[in-house]
Amino acid sequence: MIFDFVRKVVLLAGGILVVLPGAVLCCVSFRTSWPIRVPHDVWSALWRSIVLAIVVAGISSVIGFLVASSYVRRKPSRAEWLLIALALITPELPIAVSLHSAFAALHWDIPDILAVSLGQIGFPSALTILFVYLRLDASKADALIGVARTLGAKSAAILVLLLRLSWPAVTVGFLNAAAFSLQDVAYPWFLASANFAVLPTLVFSRARFGLQPWMIWYGALAAFCGALVAIIVFSPEVQLEQES
Amino acid sequence: MMKKQIGYSLGASLYFVYPFAAMGVALISSVKRLSAESVSLRPISSVLLSTTYRGIAISATVALLAVTFAAISLLHLKIGRHIPVVRMGARAFAVSTQFFSPLLVAMGWIVTVGHSRIAFSLPAMILGLLSLALPPAYIVLDLYVVGRLTRYIEMASVLGARPLMRSRLALALARPAIIGSLLITFAWTYCDLVVISLVGSGNQFYPGPLVSYLIRQSTIRELALFATLPSVALALGAAIVSQPSGKRS
Asked: pLDDT tens, B124-139?
């Protein structure tokens, strides 16, 4: 009886700990008085963040889809799974520092948006591969490819077929990558120059002097978007792989 | 056609190697530069060492707490006869909170404890890091113990095992998942920059803020990489543990 009670309390405490920051931000955002004063440089940072998010989400979705479709035709080896797991598990900080040091050592002066994109693409594209692979695997895509080939379909037609089968997973990968890019601090902080300020780095550098209303609204919107992406991930359209 | 497919797969795998290739290039150039320019490391090496110890202590505490919380929560949901909707709901909850970034968590904790006594102190930092570490710890455990564990526990309950015995059985079966989860949460907490910088006290150095400081001091930039290497080793360990052979054991 006591054991059961302790388990319930721990479950509840864990849930509260996890949800508290997002919930508090959402509640506090409604108490801010309108109109909110937004510093001039925030708008340009927001624009840069949106462009960066679209670039990162687009590239990682394309890479994720192409890699997953090749994995469906030929099952990935253990080493390939290990690489994907490493891309998902390795923290951002060592990768950001490594890329920064490698660019400096090789004297590569690449544009800020490209440098940050190179860092940010790894994690979301690995996640997109997983989403798309599970989706295609659940749809018995390998059997469909065999049928399509027997009927004389070309590679491009097969790729279109795979895209039609996996579009919910590709969409989720795209949204996840965009959400990740819009909230990521480490890569822009280490890989971009001071002129290339994006919204998360602006919030990070100014939050220590006190949270302003526009920062709270940014946090509340980010929490809302996170919840929205999660709802899409768990929608019946995407959950085909769970049923299998 | 087969050659083409192998080419695709190899190309895809090479894509994931570039961060680690960059790590290798950075390490070699760092070692070369540090040995060639005879940078005086004595003042910074003591700071680096004490920061590493502090980082390990905090990360180990948070990882242990997070995995304990996650394991007990999962045990409650698996051993208790909960309907699948509840288990699915718990997983959905963990995944959705996974989309909360460190920046969001840090801002939430700043608002939560901003006007209280524990603001910007060690307990606040640990609470913030726990918020960050709990969802991945739960997801890793959930992914590995689902299915097989439920079957074994059902079998044990049919044979008349008591809850404590069933918990022991569950812990024994989930050992690789627990180790993997511990390593992952440790690595992520050790390399956190945002929560520690914003919610921490700021009086003492932790690995993340130290790395940020070192990168800005271009003369000792090379040391930043060495401060983050333990987390890479742990991530590699977690990836190996989470391989299918690890799951079977």
From this structure: 888 888 888 888 888 7
Q: pLDDT by residue (tens digit) across B64-97?
A: 999 888 888 877 776 555 556 666 666 666 666 6
- Inform me whether the C-beta atom of residue A208 falls under 8 Å from chain B C-beta atoms: yes
Out of B111, B164, B228, the one facing A211 most closely (by C-beta) is: B111
Query: Lowest mean pLDDT: which of A99-103, A159-163, A172-176, B30-34?
Result: B30-34
Structure tokens at A161: 């077929």
Separation between Cα atoms, residue A100 and residue A122, nearest integer Å:
15
Q: What tokens were used for B120?
A: 């910007």
Instruction: Domain ranges for chain A, please list them.
Output: 1-31+211-244, 36-210
With an 8 Å Cβ cutoff, is B99 touching chain A? Answer: yes
Nearest to A24 among B70, B112, B225 (CB): B112
CB contact under 8 A, B17 and A83: yes
Residue B30 burial (CB count, 10 A): 20
- B-facing residues of A in 52-81 (CB < 8 A) are 63, 66-67, 70-71, 73-74, 76, 78-81
Quote the pTM value.
0.84
Choices 3.30.479.10, 1.20.120.450, 1.10.3720.10, 1.10.10.10: CATH for A36-210: 1.10.3720.10
Half-sphere exposure of B50 (CA within 13 A, CB side): 7
